[in-house]
Amino acid sequence: ETGVTQTPRHLVMGMTNKKSLKCEQHLGHNAMYWYKQSAKKPLELMFVYSLEERVENNSVPSRFSPECPNSSHLFLHLHTLQPEDSALYLCASSQDPQGGNTIYFGEGSWLTVV
Amino acid sequence: EDKVVQSPLSLVVHEGDTVTLNCSYEVTNFRSLLWYKQEKKAPTFLFMLTSSGIEKKSGRLSSILDKKELFSILNITATQTGDSAVYLCAVTSGSARQLTFGSGTQLTVLP
């Protein structure tokens, strides 16, 4: 139990489907993140929300659409994905930092695009 | 562009051995360096280092940061098969919302 919960844990979707990944944090943090972990690549930061406002968007294709309705919940909406989008998607949270912060990760959602 | 480089990329040892994993970085406005252990699921936090020369220890694991030479090491003594994992080094910089990861060191501990 990490304090950051992601659902679903596994998702298989076709390229024409629309699905969403959900993340909930129970740590009282006010910053949330989506990361992508592909095989044999460093972890890639996708989006950062601080106080429910998107503050980072690292050149992520528009087929990924984040939503942060409140400081405890974060969604990643997926549509018309490509097979190369298959990866582990990690949600994380932290206390909005000035100075070194510790980021806590969820267990990830394994996405396979067929 | 911020950069974090880990070495070696992979390492195979036998139980009982001691290993040293390396992480060097080039970032603008360094804030902290973090070590994570990643098995089949999400990374789990090990250490956060912000000051040079102060060793952090947790059981058989220890880590130290050198802010002058821009690197950190993670030591694992008396390794066990359960230590087999990818060890990730990450650096926070700027506003500290930015977290840059290295590509990890794959450690395999054989019985």
Characterization of the model:
- The complex is a heterodimer of chains A (114) and B (111).
- Chain A is 0% helix and 56% strand.
- Chain A has strands at residues 4-7, 10-13, 18-25, 31-37, 44-50, 53-57, 64-70, 73-79, 87-94, 104-105, 109-113.
- Chain B has 111 residues and is mostly beta strands.
- In chain B, strand 9 and strand 10 (98-101) form a beta hairpin.
- Helix content of chain B is 0%, strand content 60%.
- Chain B is globular, with a radius of gyration of 13 Å.
- The interface between A and B is medium-sized, with 27 and 23 residues.
**Terminal Cα span of chain A:** 30 Å
Percent range of helical residues of chain A: under 10%
What's the order of the H and E elements of chain B? EEEEEEEEEEE
Largest interface: A-B, 27 and 23 residues
- The helical percent of chain B reads under 10%
Which range does the strand content of chain A fall in? over 45%
**Count of DSSP H/I helices of chain B:** 0
Q: How large is the share of residues in beta strands of chain B?
A: over 45%
Please provide the count of β strands of chain A.
Answer: 11
**Poorly predicted spans of chain B:** none
**Count, helices of chain A:** 0
Mean pLDDT of chain B: 89
